[in-house]
Amino acid sequence: MGNSCMLWLLLLCMICGQGLVKEVKGLACNWGTQSTHPLQPNIVVQLLKDNGFNKVKLFEADPGALKALGNSGIQVMVGIPNDLLAPLASSVQAAINWVQQNVSDYVSKHGVDIRYVAVGNEPFLKTYKDTFLQTTFPALQNIQAALIKAGLAKQVKVTVPLNADVYQTDSGLPSGGNFRPDIHDLMMSIIKFLSDSYSPLTINIYPFLSLNADPNFPKEYAYFNGSAAPVVDGSITYTNVFEANFDTLISALEKNGFPSLSVIVGEVGWPTDGDPSANAENAQRFNQGLINRISQGQGTPKRKTPPDVYLFSLIDEDNKSTQPGNFERHWGVFNYDGSIKYQLDMGNGKSLVPAKGVRYLARQWCVMSPDASITDPNLANSISYACSYADCTSLGYGSSCGILDARNNASYAFNMYYQTMDQRKGSCSFNNLSVVTKLDPSQDTCRFEIMIDLRKHETASSLAGKIQTSTMGLILVLLLIIHGAF
User: Of 122, 243, 317, 449, which one is the catalytic site residue?
Assistant: First the structure.
């Protein structure tokens, strides 16, 4: 009997051990908040959990997002925007204050599992014209000093998310990788500092941008299951640009004496709109290949151990700058409201799960009036006005609404403005060119939005706070009246 029990226990341990070996590494993603109608943070956190994301990167210390992540079991990388680098670089006390307010307080008071502070966001992009060259490293040093002072340096590591343009290869092969000559010495200082503090380097890799920037780029090489001719680099063969790009960085690290520095892929993904190459089909193909790699624990030829990879991104952001391109607002795996764009196998046969508990504005749209003419002299200015305040990036060539005729183009623009303005009275008035309809004008790939009703997502506690604030304000006014202030 005893031997039998021991045998079963041994078998159980073996089964559990095999399960541990095969356990899927947690999924990570970016959560951006530049939206005119953001999802309630608690809904986003549930969306993360429902879809197996246990790591998330925030681009700034958003209070609502951080509070919602408290005691969620999700590990957090919290970002410092580039415009804060200068004050943090010039003052250790400013860094101490920032860490206290945006790290220590959330860890101790709200149970947020903050693991990294990301100092800046791609600060060495060539388009920034050296704006942040003098402030990034000092800010990094000061934040690290502040974490040490707060007693958090073992738990919370610093990093700098950099674009892949900080390294290059003159040979065109990963083995020729090295850091850009103009920032080589600065990169060495940062990398040595990260190495000494046992912190990772974070790199953003965008195969989509490689494809988008070069008309001669082999399209299939952008995907993980592509049929493009492989790139042979000595004894190594590369079949996709992600691996080649990552290993170019590893070669640069090896060449400069840091072969073992930990690396995180901070952003990688594929947009679904705003460009002919940005569509749901391509995004599904790329992101499914990426998730399969993560699920299988697959590294690269030079780094067999897979890095943490943060998918970019969770949800669309209709208020982002379109300077890089109209696609910039469409990187989300989910639409702005947490609805599913396309299906993905998230591992173990689990499909994507949409956001729960989302409340919408009334089911009505603003469209061009049937009585209005497309030759009306006010039409062009009306469309221009609407699109200057609302997101019309889906109307571009090769985009999801690029199929529309002139009348439906106007309807799309009018509706985006109407929804962005929360369907307020008078927001569907374009020189007598528009009317409100209850018939959904969506067609084919073009989705006419109805925005989230932000008012319905106010919690009882926030309403109570407003009532309390209003009451206190009234009491203060009464006291001032009594004392003759008015």
Answer: 122
